[in-house]
Amino acid sequence: MSGMKSEEYWENLVKKSLCRFLLLSQLAKGPLHGYAVNQAIKDACNGCCEPTEAMVYSTMKELQDNGYVESRMEEHQGRRRRVCWLTPTGEEAFQSAARVWERMLPAIQDCVAQALYTAPVEVKV
């Protein structure tokens, strides 16, 4: 078991948070149905975050249950699908999240640069 040494561990951890933020960002552009949200998230991050449909739908349900998203069933080309959009509370949540990401990204970029582009420091014991 490699745990925190595994890139997969870190990808899954980041995806959970990033998926929620990207979902809000896509719905802030206007109403979308579930599959379109999933595709928009993939497109928005150039494929680096590919949430599963289950992840998108469970996050969407959680956001709806908490009043951040509303939805209705619509028919499109003979198929019914659920279309979702942000509520005013969801808009506020997206703005708050964006401010937090804006503050955190420079620190994350510094840590990444340190890990990838700086020679390891030899620790003497």
Account of the 3D structure:
This protein is an alpha+beta fold and 125 residues long. It is elongated. It has a single domain (3-117), classed as Orthogonal Bundle (Arc Repressor Mutant, subunit A). The chain contains 4 helices and 3 strands. It has a 3-stranded antiparallel sheet with strand order 1-3-2. Helix 1 packs across helix 2 (34-44).
CATH superfamily: Winged helix-like DNA-binding domain superfamily/Winged helix DNA-binding domain
At the third CATH level, what is the topology name? Arc Repressor Mutant, subunit A
How many helices? 4
Quick one: CATH class? Answer: Mainly Alpha
- Mean pLDDT, as a whole number? 88
Structure keywords:
60% helix, elongated, 125 residues, Arc Repressor Mutant, subunit A
Put the structure in a nutshell.
With about 120 residues, this protein is an alpha+beta fold. The chain has helices at about 5-25, 35-45, 55-65, 90-115; strands at about 30-35, 70-75, 80-85.
